[in-house]
Specification:
heterodimer; A: mainly alpha; 2 domains; 11 helices; globular; disordered C terminus; B: mainly beta; Immunoglobulin-like; 5-stranded mixed sheet; 4-stranded antiparallel sheet
């Protein structure tokens, strides 16, 4: 099989793994929203069987375990495939993804067997996001676009877009941890609300920088637009989720409205992080590092005037 | 080198995650013994507190439970089931209120009853809704339903446990070693199934019946703080002094938000 076809195959498989991971995230969010996390008290079996009685909350917990098993198998295949045909970084990332999904399974077991949702469930939710963006990154790194020879761009704005996008991604990730912590009782709502203000500011700043500096570059612009779209959706869902949580505190059981809104909030949060990661990686792929830009500027100045700029003397 | 450090850090984090959590749950928890020298109750002088609990105002309407997630549960109730959070009759008598001695019994020691306190699962509801027992007393959980339940008490000071109970399974026997108020109990298979367990160090507690009545009998003479707990309306305290062979009446009146002007 030609090399390009092999890569296309592994890329498609990575995209499929990322897509099934979205379903896994949804299944996990359904477990929490339906208050079904403890409906199956044993692990790895369920009620001592491979297939438990599929009633009430057990359906959600069991579906989550089935999706987790499916994603584990897909990740194993992806890691092996990448080890045989991927680039060095993709190979490493493939094994990292496999390590993460194994760690995630063990954390899930810990959540079931030892309880303590504030700690274990928050860690489980955090690791889920790390795994998801790892697989999304793999999908990007194996894409034909990433492999192509691309003409690189100079970023002469300040702050540089590469670190700005990276900081935004880190902030979105922290915000997701704060959200998970609130959902599982580790933190109050205040850190998540502060995180919302910080993340909104950073995303708007990053996307504005993309638009102003690289508005003509489709590969950056589209990810910026997507990130902003997810942010807008997430803000609306956040307000709705806040209302739904307040309602649920008085309710005897989770309502359908509560489940739909909170699950959507978790999913769009994950997609926001994923699009921020893709934008950041695209920035690193397309924009020259600061040092190279500085060197090029120095050379241009030397060519034009024969003098060395201050920065290059140091 | 960097890769090795990264792998080492990942392994360490995982090891901490697996081994570091959950230390609070000691499965060998024993009842806290009152080891100091304690007074013996003189049964010839004991008295009682008898009274009732009422609700002032009309409780907010509660939505019926939606049991559509489980056909068996749905079939078990031809009429809609209202969650038993506020059970009040036309006269305002309030059921499911726990009345107990909060303070005044520090100098006495009490035997743990031998008979178990039973929580049944019937029609995908807990019966009774409120359970009160003594520390170390057997707590027996039965499943009369033809569906699977899990029983999951979530105490703060006692050991947390979560057990499944399929139809026809033998009863689950457990104990709570330490006194603790209002331990929530859940069935995560059927999220509307909620209950509360009260664990006391003394036998002076009661759960009000449908007529709102309660009795705390065989109380030694003394001054006591009596507390009444209701799931939605919180707690009320009263101080009462009982002389030898004396019986004191006591009335607690909870107020709804509308009645208290909130």
């Amino acid at each position: 099989m030609p090399e390009t076809e092999k890569l296309q195959g592994v890329h498609r498989f990575a995209v499929a793994t990322a897509s099934v991971t979205v379903l896994l995230l949804m299944a996990g969010a359904l477990v929490t929203s339906n208050d079904a996390a403890d409906s199956v008290p044993d692990w790895p079996l369920a009620y001592g069987r491979i297939i438990p009685p599929l009633v009430g909350g057990i359906r959600y917990e069991f579906a989550h375990r089935v999706f987790a098993a499916a994603v584990s198998v897909l990740t194993l295949v992806l890691a092996v495939w990448l080890a045989r045909s991927g680039a060095r970084i993709a190979r490493k990332l493939g094994w990292t993804a496999l390590g993460l999904i194994i760690a995630q399974a063990l954390l899930g077991a810990l959540r079931v067997l030892r309880g303590h949702p504030a700690v274990t469930a928050t860690m489980h939710a955090t690791l889920a996001q790390i795994f998801f963006v790892t697989v999304v990154s793999l999908a990007l790194l194996t894409s034909a676009w990433w492999q192509r020879d691309l003409s690189l761009l100079d970023d002469r704005g300040s702050p540089r877009l590469r670190p700005l996008a990276a900081v935004t991604t880190a902030a979105v990730f922290v915000q997701l941890i704060l959200g998970a912590g609130f959902r599982h009782g580790a933190f109050g709502i205040l850190p998540h609300l502060i995180g919302f203000v910080v993340v909104t500011f950073l995303i708007v700043w990053t996307c504005r920088a993309v638009r102003k500096r690289f508005g003509q570059v489709r590969d950056l612009r589209r990810w910026g637009i997507m990130l902003q779209a997810f942010l807008g959706t997430q803000v609306l869902l956040g307000v709705a989720a806040y209302w739904a949580v307040a309602q649920a505190m008085q309710a005897v059981q989770p309502s359908l409205t509560y489940v739909v809104i909170t699950v959507a909030h978790v999913l769009v949060g994950a997609l926001t992080l994923a699009s921020s990661v893709v934008l950041t990686l695209s920035c690193y792929r397309l924009i020259r590092p600061k040092a190279v830009v500085a060197l090029r500027s120095a050379m241009e100045t030397t060519r034009a005037g024969g003098t060395r700029p201050e920065s290059s003397r140091a | 080198m960097k890769t090795k450090l990264f792998n080492l850090a990942l392994a360490a984090a995982l090891a901490i995650a697996i081994t570091g959590c959950g230390k609070k749950e000691d499965t060998n928890e024993q009842p806290v013994a009152n080891s100091n020298a304690k007074k013996v109750i003189d049964t010839s002088t004991v008295g009682s507190v008898t009274g009732s609990v009422t609700l002032d105002g009309k409780p907010a309407p509660i939505k019926p439970i939606n049991m559509s997630a489980e056909p068996y549960c749905l079939k078990a109730h031809p009429n809609p089931v209202i969650p038993p959070e506020v059970v009040v009759n036309d006269k305002g008598d309030l059921a499911n209120v726990v009345v107990y001695v909060k303070d005044g019994l520090a100098d006495y020691n009490f035997d743990t009853p031998k008979e178990p306190v039973v929580l049944n699962q019937q029609g995908c509801m807990y019966d009774p809704h409120i359970i009160a027992l003594m520390a170390g007393q057997t707590f027996e959980v039965k499943n009369d339903d033809q569906t699977t339940h899990n029983i999951h008490p979530m105490p703060k000071d006692n050991r947390e446990w979560n057990k499944s109970q399929p139809p026809g399974a033998s009863p689950i026997d457990e104990t709570f070693g330490r006194a603790e108020l209002a331990i929530p109990v859940k069935c995560n298979v059927h999220p509307w199934m909620k209950s509360y367990i009260f664990v006391f160090k003394n036998p002076y507690y009661a759960v009000t019946s449908k007529d709102g009545k309660f009795t705390l009998k065989d109380l030694p003479p003394g001054t006591y703080t009596i507390e009444a707990w209701q799931e939605k309306y919180g707690v009320l305290d009263q101080t009462v002094t009982i002389g030898a062979k004396e019986s004191k009446p006591l009335t607690f009146t909870f107020k709804t938000a509308a009645a208290s002007g909130d």
